[in-house]
Design goal:
The protein is of the alpha+beta class. The protein has one domain: Nucleoside Triphosphate Pyrophosphohydrolase (Alpha-Beta Complex). Helix content is 31%, strand content 20%. It has a two-stranded antiparallel sheet. Strands 2-3 form a two-stranded antiparallel ribbon. It is globular.
């Protein structure tokens, strides 16, 4: 299965937690189905990124990384930077 089709299938299979996630899911699917350059920062409307909010089981601690460019703490993530193969 082509990478984009596999990603669309995974996002369609996701069960949103709330109304905001439902709207986000619909928007991401529309963009994946209509924007050929969605995996590049060249797309001025939107581009694919991934992030993770990692907590312990009790949700009392969170894993964060220090961003050397912005000199701040952040959750983990990044940009596809044109490489659709980095998506499952």
């Amino acid at each position: 299965m082509e990478m984009r089709a596999a990603l669309i299938a995974q996002i369609r299979a996701f069960t949103p937690y709330n109304e905001q996630e439902e709207m986000d899911q619909a928007l991401i699917l529309r963009m994946l189905e209509s924007a050929p350059d969605l995996f590049s920062r060249e797309n001025r409307a939107a581009h694919m990124t991934a992030s993770a909010w990692v907590t312990n089981a009790a949700r009392g601690k969170v894993l964060m990384a220090y961003h050397n460019i912005y000199h701040s703490w952040s959750w983990l993530g990044g940009h596809a930077d044109g490489d659709a193969a980095c998506w499952p």
